[in-house]
Structure formats: structure tokens, C-alpha cells
Please model this.
Amino acid sequence: MESEYIKVLWREFRSLKISSYYLTFEKLRRVLTLDLVLRCVEDAYRYTAVAKSELQMPSKEYFFYEDGDMRIMPAIAKIDGEVVTGMKIVSVHFDNPKSNLPTVIGFFILVDSKTGSLLSVFDATYLTAMRTGASGAVSAKYFLKNKEKIKVGIIGCGVQARTQIIFLAHLKKIEELVIYDISEKALESFSSFVRKLGLTPRIAKTLYDFSNCDIVVTLTPSREPFVMQEHVENAKLINAMGADAPGKQELHPQILKNSTIIVDNLNQSVHAGEINVPLKKGEITKDMIFGEIGEVIAGLKTPPDNKRIVFDSTGIAILDLFVGFGVYKEARKMGLLKSFKIH
Model:
């Protein structure tokens, strides 16, 4: 009898004819250009300031494993007059390199906002690296706007360091590059990479070697503050990118106290950004946060010129939504999408 019930039920669903689309990794690479990502990231940040009433974006949800975590990042926004719904699922597994896999793996889905059907799915590992690199460059564009030539310091030379330097070099002339990592292998690999870009890196012997950099980018998963005030004495901008989960912290609180703190998203940063630990310990207070980067880009706030800026970048879902939708539209225009059916 149960099988008869199933047959009756199946007849109700079998008439569904929904086509979805996917984009292969090779074709994603063709679409995901530096200029497209930069434009989408800048537009996304601006949108968070000028269209708050249209934006639905809860803080990312974390689920924890023994060797990493998984993050769910949904968002709904109105882009070019169209309501766009998307979600990224991204996992961080620190043992992945032992299996020749990237530490960060993710995928992105777009959902038809009118019907709820699956619109498109594609890799978000590369997308995440690119949009995070672009967010660092957009920060430099607005917070180092009077400097065309910059001295760059990179602390943490993994995959993310590569997109950070590519996007910075796309917008600014890099006259000096100082790099540091506790892993000799990572240092050698990153050094080889940047030389192919025409840059000559200087490997820091100690963190004091960063004291004359204009911008310092921190990209480590540290849970103990190791970058001290004296290490970044003359930096005009610190892009704190590594602390993207509860309990992570790279900068000594004194750096935050002596800087203008700008975040990508206030609600998310207080729980999972560079400021999350010092806030919980009472080492800094919430009223010390100047504002969000979107407010600066939109011209709603102007940070003081005579004070260093710390940009606390946690990585927000609206970036993935704008970049993901930009990829989808461009791929559709170029005829690169492939259809598949799950119904």
C-alpha cells in the first residue's frame, strides 16, 4: 500500500519542469575579471549604506568542526532594479592542504526571487578569494586616496595574500613589498608568485620591518594578538582580514585605541571581526567604532586625515551576492551558462 501512496504523490511532482544553470570553474575564471569584482564590491559596500531598508543580510552563521568551520551567508538585495536572492556556503578546514585541497572551499547559489527555484550554482572558492582581495583594494582606494605609490606589508602569505597583492597592484603602484609568514614554504611560494608580477619582495626578519609600510594587511587565523603598536608605527592603514570568526585576533588592542576603526558590517564585526575579542574583554568600547566602510564610500562619513585607519574586514554576504549576480549576468550575456535539471 505504501508504494501506491508514493506513486500518487509522485504524480503530483513529476510535472515540475525547472531548468537551472551552472558555470564551470574555467568559465568562471573568464568572467571574474579584476574590474568586474572591484566594481561589484564597491557597489555592494555603498549599497549597505544607502539602501539599508532593501537589504536583508543576517550575520553569517557558524558551524564548527574539530579542524575548522562552515559558514552560511545568505542575502537578499535589489540590484539594478531586480530583487536578487543568493547564499554562499563556505567551509574552512585547516588540514585540507595535506590532501592537496585549499583551506577554504565554498559554493554559491542564486535563487529565483519570484518563484524560489534554483537559478544558478557555481564555485565560490575562487569567488571568495577574489572578492576578499578586492575589498582590501577598495579600502586602500578610499583610505589611502592621496597616495598613488604605496609601501605594502603582508603578514600571512597563504592563498589570500595573492589576491590582496594583485588587487592592490591593480589600483596602486607598489614601490616596496615586505612579507612575513611563520612558514618558510609559504614565504617561498608567495615570493615566487609576486616575482612573476614584477615585484621584488623583502622577507621580514621581524615584525619591526613593517614599521615604515603605508599599508599592512594581516591575513592569519591567529587567536592571540601578535602585531604590536611599534610594529606598525607609521602605517596609515591596516587591513585586518584574518579575524573572521569568534575568538580570532591579530592586533594588540593598543593599535585599535590609537586608530580610527572602520568595519565592513557592525553587527558582524562585534561578534566575529578583529574587534570581537577586545570588545568582550572591555579593552575597547563600541562607541570607538567610527562607522562602516559603506558609509565612507557613499560620502556619509569622512574619517580624519591625521589618524591611522584600521579596516576590520570580516567578509559579508552582500559582497558575494553582488559579485555572484554580476558573474551570472555576464556569463549569461556571453553564453557560458550550462543548463541542468534537478526536477
User: Anything to note?
Assistant: The chain has two domains: 19-127+319-337, 146-314.
